[in-house]
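Quarterly update from the structural biology core.
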Amino acid sequence: MLGALRMVMFAPEDLSLVRGDPSERRRYLDELLVARTPRYAGVRADYERVLKQRNALLKTAGMARRAGSAGDLRTLDVWDNHLAVHGAELLAGRLELVSALQPFVVKGYDQVSMGAGGRPPRRTNARPWTKVSGSRTSLRRRTC
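Predicted structure, tokenized:
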């Protein structure tokens, strides 16, 4: 039957990537990124450490406010800055990883989705993600 039927198998744990929280997809990409480029293990660890420190600061400030005193948030800007720096580095790595995987994903999709005539669906050479310039740089999904 191998080669005669075109199918894709999803295990229950694989469905969490599609149907689950975005955090599951980020975790999966980060694990793949670290496996491909080990230096991102340090970036990821730094990001998670800074996030925990920042959240602890916010939690203690919130508890202080509920107790009637002013919470000390003087270092929040410092933690926000570190979080943004490490987060931007992780995001850049994820985007690079997705770009590197794109040809393989497209090829796999074309192989799985061949029509009755044995030909893959017609596709353009355009990349599905594009940078949009302006006052803010962002990524937008192109529609086909």
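Residues 132-144 have pLDDT under 50 and may be disordered.
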